[in-house]
Automatic annotation (TrEMBL):
Taxonomic source organism: Spinactinospora alkalitolerans
Domain of life of the organism encoding this protein: Bacteria
GO cellular component: plasma membrane
Protein name stated in the entry: Putative proline/betaine transporter
GO molecular function, one term: symporter activity
Amino acid sequence: MTGTSSSASAENQRSATLRRVVAASFIGNFVEWFDYAVYGYLAATISVVFFPQSSPTAGLLATFGIFALSFVIRPVGGIVWGHFGDRIGRRTALSLSILIMSAATFVIALLPGYEQIGLMAPVLLLAVRMVQGFSAAGEYAGAAAFLYEYAPRHRRGVYAGVVPASTATGLLLGSLLVTALTAVLSTDQMASWGWRLPFLLAAPLGLIGRYIRVKLEDTPEFRALGQAEPPAHAPMTETLRDNRRAIVVAFGATCLNAVGFYTLLTYMPTYLSTELGVEATTSFLSTTVALCGYIASVFAMSRLSDRVGRPAMLAAAGALFAVFSVPAFLLLGVTGVVGMALIQLGLGVLLSMNDGTLPSYLCDLFPTRVRYSGFAFSFNTANALFGGTAPFMATFLIHISGSSIAPAWYLAAAGAVGVVCMPAAHRIFHSLLPQERRG
């Protein structure tokens, strides 16, 4: 009887710990990506504040150019955060990254515009965005590794699915807040002071996320690894030496996430307003519908990945994007508001098939010893090249081609790359030791 009671108590303690881990990861990642995404939703207003001398298209390109440049530092940030995460611990790296992100976002709210300090205004904006990019480089990979290493082996997909769900929830709050502001405030009020309000929320939200994270122990896998052997002296060097093929596959698999996430969930309100002439509040509401569908379906897709296998899920998502992206964008231009929202909802659900699977898949690819480094470097390199540049490329492709569906071809190409990567991934999984394979 005592043994049964002790076993039940231990199980209850494990369940309580898992709930705290999920809550800490969700809230922390939510805060980071709310901070990071607000810039994308306010791009049209920010272009007026920081680039008033430019034409609307040039100002928007400049604003998205700063958005893209903030991603340049992310591979460097991935190496730095991966080093700390693999050597010192996942929790320590995550607790520090959220402070840096929140401080940088709060500073954006205080920046003077072009009318006050001229060219120094966009220079300062770029500098702060670079700090944001450095911080974000450690968040997604660290939170995914943290959840993956705490989760039961047969449910790693669904637990790691908390990361994209919390990321999209941060975007959802940003979208709702910007929607409310654009509905209540005039264009002049938004350009004068309204755009600053979402950035001011960063400080209190960041402190809450930090507090929750420091109350947890590091992951059981990381602690067990530390007892068995010393941590990697140079995790990134070891990753490049022993896991080169995994890095290449991880990079390719992340391309659809990079292009799809930033095109469909951050750039789309700007696309609907500037290219299709949709009223600003309506475009934000339509994207909010897509975000809700994405969040609702992420857990279903991540749970399915535990059952049918992650390479199969990612290959299916890539194939569907390759086939349906162009028809979906064609319909966006001719359908009404309800149809537009339904199309975005469908694209959001398709993206969740990829994104709900990706975090656990990237964790599968790398051993515990260098998991944070391998994940962070490959994920952030792909996002630096294709994610941060997605709004800029979409605007640029429309400009040079004269076609409003040009972003759809970019999405379709990213989906095709994901499909091509899966055979190589299959070979990698079968070459892993049994203890390193997906449970």
